[in-house]
Amino acid sequence: MALLNTTQREYYEGSDYGNYQFTSLKDIINQFMVVYVGEGKAIQKATRLDVAFHAQRAMQELSFDTFKSVKSQEIELPPSLTMILPQDYVNYVKLTFSDSAGIEHVLYPTSKTSNPFAILQEDDGTYDFTYKSSTLVKNSDYADANDISTGSTTSWRKNAPVGNDKIGIVSEQLEFEHNSNSPIQGTNTKTSRAYAVWQEVDVAAVDFLDLSAKGISAASGTGKGVGTIRVGISTFGFPRYNPNITNPNKSDGRNNEDQIFDVFTEDGDRALLTFNDGLATQSTKEIINVDVRGLNSVFVLITSFIENFTNTTADPSKNKIDDVIISCDAISDKLQTEGDSNTWNNFKAHKPAENNINDYQDYENHIYWPNEGERYGLDPQHAQVNGSFYIDELKGLIHFSSSLAGKTIILKYISDGLGTEEEMKVHKFAEEAMYRSISYAIISASSYGQNLARRFKREKFAAVRQAKLRLSNIKLEEITQIFRGKSKQIKH
Which partner from 85, 259, 263, 329 sits 20 to 30 angstroms from 102, CA to CA? Predict the structure, then answer.
């Protein structure tokens, strides 16, 4: 029975090139259930759930040191000298920087420093458990233009713009650009879409908070009213409210209403700042003593709306927000920190050894080639000039030495092959290793197959060994070519 289910034309005009070398994990599970499980077979009883579990575990284990599972990412190192660990990161293979010729230079981990948890302290040395207000709202000044999306991977979330409308961070300001409109039911007028941007904030240890923001209300014009932009506190608990609904005509499309801001101040005022002066100039507003007692979390909610929006051919109306700040005086049960430790900040600020190439007498200088044997006892881990890195597993960041600022950094890492559905496939060279690994795992966990466990173990290791050899992809001609670089002649 043929395995190809696409024509040559479909293959070459598509994008899934080289797919024939892989078998999906789903197919492996199905084939295992048919061939290996049943009466009269080595595995008499096994549920599909059992097989699926052991198949995933086998794929994880084989991904670490057998499969060709190395993935890579490239970034231009920002001034923060940090790189975020990939979503499916398990361990790194190597880190390099790429020069102007595209040649990669290997970076080495530093063992002489780290970034420990820096405990916030009072002047007398006692531990300070007071919340830092600046940490409650992330990216409150919108300095990070990428920290906003329709998903949940960023600090700020937004609903999807309709038509030519836009929502994003422009020039370190949150900007709503309104270009489209919608008729209001039961009337002859039209209005803009009502958009929302929001962020969840932890207030479990906060009783009262103050909220301030800077806003710009779009000016009115022919066929469009002034811009209305609201910043406030909400629990998202108002009946039938969904921030993703932008159509004001829908029962849950209430981004144009005040009632969705359902948290109040101690005096009973709604926790809401409204900018609707239509002056197109920035102003600052503040509300104090917002009562969040009894709440574990709330949402900083920002909505944007244009009244009487009938002219969509004129220049777009733009509402803008900046510096959304929550201030509070709260005590936490957890130790607080001021951010990066002094240890790491001092390491980053120090002029790296690789930049001191002419300072031969400096003990901190690890440059090795200009000294012509004058330096004895050189630590081999410092005998390189490419730079260094430190992986902070707790925070999920890779820190780099200052000499690498602005360089192109390449991270090569391994995953476990279970991150996405597209990744859950096995190279055909390792297919037998998967079957043997699943078989041994099921037999070793059963009560009836203990007499077969030893045999299955041998077969598993033999299949894994064979898969490693096949996947190593060693070619005689390539090895010979490398050997020709040596002093001794290699003949064919």
Answer: 85
Rounded-to-integer distance, Cα 306 and Cα 317, Å: 8
Nearest to 304 by CA among 161, 472, 424, 447: 161
CA distance 304 to 196: 7
Please check whether residue 234 is in contact with residue 261, taking contact to mean a CB–CB distance below 8 angstroms: yes
473 burial class (0-12, 13-18, 19+ CB within 10 angstroms)?
A: exposed
Q: Give the DSSP per-residue string, 469-487.
A: HHHH---HHHHHHHHTTSS
Per-residue model confidence as pLDDT tens digits over 370-424: 555 555 566 666 667 788 888 888 788 898 888 888 899 999 988 877 766 677 8
Residue 413: enclosing H or E segment and its boundaries?
Answer: strand 408-414
Report how far residue 76's alpha carbon sits from residue 53's, in angstroms, rounded to the nearest whole number. Answer: 39
Helix (H, G, I), strand (E, B) or coil at 449: coil
Residues 81-97 have pLDDT tens digits of 889 998 888 888 899 99
Which residues on neighbouring strands pair with residue 321, listed in sequence order?
A: 174, 215
